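Q: Given only this backbone (473 positions), what sequence would you predict?
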């Protein structure tokens, strides 16, 4: 055994195999196939069963949905490839440790807490999705679009069991998460295709014009929902995973990549999941909307429920139940894994497995409340808006620190607990654009990019000022 591999084995033992505070060694790097499986599994998953129907409740037109998703997903893939993956393979650090070096220990603790909790809420919404499938054999009442609280003991028991299983899988580490995704994703993809084909048949579609007319020129949104236009679809689909790509959360994933080209693997998730699967799930809901049950809701001025389990079961039977359960798992698993890494940065004395179980417990509690899943479009926009600007701090420092004459990882170099440049840059950009969103009723996804750019620019300006001021002392 070479000295290099002896050192790697020691390193692996010391950090528990997940390399939370050290660069990933070469022997642990993974090829592009690992990322295709993970991203196809994660993004042809539980969220897709919710988001597709929610687009329909927002009154999108055929052009807005089909063309808007095409462009929005291209922008997302480019963001992963040329920002996230590019930086990840240079540093090979988790997002949380990278931010600690830039922001300082105390400041990044607040970020990690917010990040971990928001990821837990997202994972919780996927536990909700899986529960709608598991509950079918038990004749469980399904949550309605405006439900907030659990609707019965059966719901609570099912959610707790699903959450426990998902948490155990996530706690076993990155390798187990990717293996689970690789095993489940082909089943889920086949199920989505089958659901789409069956739904087209149920809708009587025999030509492309029939398909196009399902959405037609668009419609008024369902009660309580926001009207989506072409630009809503483009920008929302770009930043649906804004926290992961421009927000740099997936530094924790791509630090295992051999090359930045692995970033192209995200296209498997975007076009199998965020394109084909969203449209297939929307078709399922289009079938349900024509049912007597749904029409009774609409006639009473209420939005029909969005319950992925029954919709998939109606289309392809037991395979639909299995697909929805697995789909929820393949989203919740890596999301809980990310949340565990965030909590591990706050509680470094606890093992990754223990903090991941903690994250899973929080996600399970969130899963008891259907509101996180039923308001997924708005929630995803909010968490991307909150977290994405921190990614700008990493990106601007990485690409422009030499040109601006700024010291990288300044909090680590100067021994700062709080880097004021980061604090002020994020607070100003967040405060300004959140005010604009609320005051002028601007959809949050529309102000995510301006907030990201402003945060990165202000960070460079403030860093230049504070570092120059410190150096004069």
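A: Predicted residues:
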């Amino acid at each position: 055994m070479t000295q290099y591999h002896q050192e790697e084995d020691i390193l692996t033992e010391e950090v528990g195999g997940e390399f939370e505070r050290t660069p990933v060694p070469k022997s642990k790097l993974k090829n592009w196939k690992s990322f295709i499986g993970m991203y196809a599994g994660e993004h042809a998953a539980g969220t897709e069963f919710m988001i597709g129907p929610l687009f329909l409740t927002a009154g999108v037109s055929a052009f807005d949905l089909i063309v808007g998703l095409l462009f929005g997903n291209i922008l997302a893939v480019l963001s992963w490839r040329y920002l996230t993956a590019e930086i990840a393979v240079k540093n090979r650090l988790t997002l949380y440790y990278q931010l600690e070096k830039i922001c300082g220990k105390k400041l990044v603790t607040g970020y990690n807490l917010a990040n971990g909790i928001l990821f837990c809420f997202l994972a919780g919404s996927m536990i909700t999705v899986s529960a709608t499938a598991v509950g079918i054999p038990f004749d469980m009442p399904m949550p309605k679009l405006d439900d907030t609280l659990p609707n019965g003991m059966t719901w609570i028991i099912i959610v707790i069991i699903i959450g426990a299983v998902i948490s155990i899988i996530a706690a076993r580490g990155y390798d187990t998460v990717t293996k689970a995704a690789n095993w489940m994703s082909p089943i889920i993809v086949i199920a989505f295709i089958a659901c789409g084909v069956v739904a087209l048949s149920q809708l009587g579609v025999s030509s492309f014009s029939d398909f196009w007319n399902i959405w037609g020129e668009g419609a008024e949104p369902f009660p309580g929902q926001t009207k989506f236009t072409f630009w809503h679809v483009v920008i929302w689909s770009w930043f649906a995973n804004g926290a992961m790509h421009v927000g740099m959360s997936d530094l924790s994933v791509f630090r295992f990549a051999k090359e930045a080209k692995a970033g192209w693997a995200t296209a498997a998730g975007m076009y199998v999941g965020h394109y084909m699967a969203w449209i297939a799930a929307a078709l399922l809901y289009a079938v349900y909307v024509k049912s007597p049950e749904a029409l009774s809701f609409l006639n009473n001025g209420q939005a029909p429920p969005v319950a992925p389990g029954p919709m998939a079961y109606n289309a392809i039977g037991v395979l639909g139940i299995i697909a929805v359960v697995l789909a929820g798992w393949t989203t919740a698993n890596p999301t809980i894994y990310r949340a565990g890494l965030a909590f591990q940065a706050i509680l470094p004395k606890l093992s990754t497995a223990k903090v991941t179980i903690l994250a899973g417990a929080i996600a399970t509690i969130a899963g008891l409340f259907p509101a996180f899943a039923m308001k997924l479009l708005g929630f995803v926009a909010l968490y991307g808006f909150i977290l994405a600007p921190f990614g700008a701090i990493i990106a601007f420092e990485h690409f422009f620190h030499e040109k601006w004459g700024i010291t990288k990882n300044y909090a680590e170099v100067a021994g700062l607990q709080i880097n004021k440049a980061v604090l002020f840059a994020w607070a100003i950009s967040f405060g300004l654009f959140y005010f604009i969103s609320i005051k002028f009723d601007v959809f949050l996804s529309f102000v995510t990019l301006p907030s990201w750019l402003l945060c990165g620019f202000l960070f460079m300006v403030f860093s230049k000022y504070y570092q120059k001021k410190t150096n004069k002392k």
